[in-house]
Amino acid sequence: MRVKTRIVKVDPLGREESLLIPCAEVLRRGGLVAFPTETVYGLGANALMSEAVSRIFQAKGRPQDNPLIVHVSRPESVAPLVRDIPQGAVRLMEAFWPGPLTLLFAKSDLVPDVVTAGLHTVAIRMPDHPVAQRLIDLAGVPVAAPSANLSGKPSPTTFEATLADLEGRVDVIVDGGPADIGVESTVLDISGPVPRILRPGGLSPEELRKFLGEVEVAADTPHQGPPPSPGMKYRHYAPRGHVYLAVGSPKEQAESIGFHAARHVILGEKVLILASSENAPEYAPLAGRWPDRLSVLDLGPRDDLPRVASRLFAGLRYADETGAGVILAESFPEHGLGHAIQNRLRKASGGRTLRPAERAEMNILLVCTGNTCRSPMAEALLRAIWQVECSEIHLNAWSRGTSASDGMPATPEALKAMAARGLDLSGHRATTVSEEDLSQADVVITMTEGHKDSLTRRYPAHAGKVVTLAAASGGALPGDVSDPFGHSQDAYDRTAQDLDTGLRAFCERIKRVI
Ligand code: TXA
Ligand code: MG
């Protein structure tokens, strides 16, 4: 259901109480109000009203089993919401509230089950933002508020990003300027013998350790059992394109990102590189060569992680604005805010990484129908051309058919066409393509549009890797490679010539970027 969203622009220091009073009234009566905090924008509802809280889940499209954080404007507001306040929590609240630290407590009956998704614990924090504090104070009720994004998207750090996600879905959006920290609060569980960070965030493990001694950080993706924090199991922070996270030294990252950026551009993708300031100049030549296909966003210096954190979500959102199908992100040092930065990048990438060694090899799969003429010839030709043109990179090339009779040798005409070029196909046996083949390949080159369609329909997860030889040749080959099967030797020789033209142009294009 669409609602009319009122926009209220306020002074970021929260001094315009007269503007905040009506917003607080909307909250208190069960409406939805998005507002700035020091971490990210939040989408708030009266935490004591089940129906109001249910509307949060609807507005965000959030899974019902992911509990919300309750926000208070003063520490005294915690007591009615919890069974007790352990001494450890009192000390943490004194030290770090208001601020980006969310604490888990055993919940009291006052907190509706919908807030905690049926858990016996409730997560509470006191935000360090004058607008959030005034608003909650004026509402006079605790405010349940997840980040103000549509579920699965990066959290909004600006009013504009909040508006883009929630216009028509909430009653009010309070514009209080950009959020300062840029990543969400640290969620801490102190119920066990060793305090445990369930979600790294704006307060670093190092700062908590100074205060608490030993502190564990829960793994990004728990391997077994229920996730300690339900939100950790969902795909998160993800733009529409695929995110790849580079690993290794800064130099290795620049190399692998440069190489893969070029490869994806050649395959026809739009690419965004999320770079450190140190490495950003390395990518400038690529951006200069393909200004409309490749862009670079400087997230900030490796030694200024607060700056990187504050730009991270805007960077991931920018990917959607540019329409990038591929986002190649650098890794940042994992200390201080780097824990939260890397956690969000790993989530956004869904585990896709670029390893340093990947630069040195390329896995190319060639596909036709029966895997007895065109693709085996293409495989042999590619190996031969590659040796001359691109010898710095190790090539793994193999061929498959979309519907092959497994075990068939290449046709005698194909053998002959290749023998004329000094290439031997006698050992080749036809094999039907499998999902395994596509996952191993960096690039899948098909002989026709039809083969491409068939592969992308069968294996949509790998669609981004599949390209026709015509496209891979950058237009040197004007269209489909025709099937010589059942035709004369002449037809085979012409097909071999077409393959040669297309593959040579492809290798030329690869060579220019390595
Ligand atoms: O900085 C923040 O924390 C922002 C601003 C708006 O305050 N809020 C925020 O909320 O990030 P949300 O809903 O996007 O993330 C809350 C996280 C989720 O991972 C959720 O699973 C976890 O906190 N959480 C909430 N209640 C919990 C509980 N009782 N036990 C364990 N985890 C809980
Ligand atoms: Mg969130």
Give an overview in words.
There is one protein chain. The protein contains 17 helices and 20 strands. The protein is an alpha/beta fold and 514 residues long. The chain has three domains: 212 residues, Alpha-Beta Complex (DHBP synthase); 113 residues, Rossmann fold; 153 residues, Response regulator (Rossmann fold), CATH 3.40.50. The strands form three sheets. The chain has an eleven-stranded mixed sheet, sandwiched between helices. It has a five-stranded parallel sheet with strand order 14-13-15-12-16, sandwiched between helices. Helix 15 links the parallel strand 19 and strand 20. Helix 12 runs parallel beside helix 13. The longest helix is centred in the last third of the chain and has 25 residues. The chain is elongated, with a radius of gyration of 28 Å. About 1% of the residues have low confidence. The site of magnesium ion has 3 residues, from loops. Magnesium ion binds next to loops.
In short, what is this structure?
The chain is of the alpha/beta class.
Task: List the SSEs and their pairings.
Layout: E1 6-9, H1 17-28, E2 33-35, E3 42-46, H2 50-60, E4 69-71, H3 87-96, E5 101-106, H4 113-116, E6 121-125, H5 130-139, E7 143-144, H6 159-166, E8 172-175, E9 186-189, E10 196-199, H7 205-212, E11 216-217, E12 242-246, H8 250-266, E13 271-276, H9 280-289, E14 294-300, H10 305-322, E15 326-329, H11 338-349, E16 353-354, E17 361-368, H12 374-389, E18 394-401, H13 412-419, H14 435-440, E19 443-446, H15 449-458, E20 466-468, H16 469-472, H17 489-513
Helix pairs in contact: 1-5, 10-11, 12-13, 12-17, 13-17
Threonylcarbamoyladenylate (TXA) is lined by residues 37, 39-40, 42, 66-69, 100, 102, 104, 116, 119, 121-123, 127, 145-147, 184-185, 187, 198-199, 229-231.
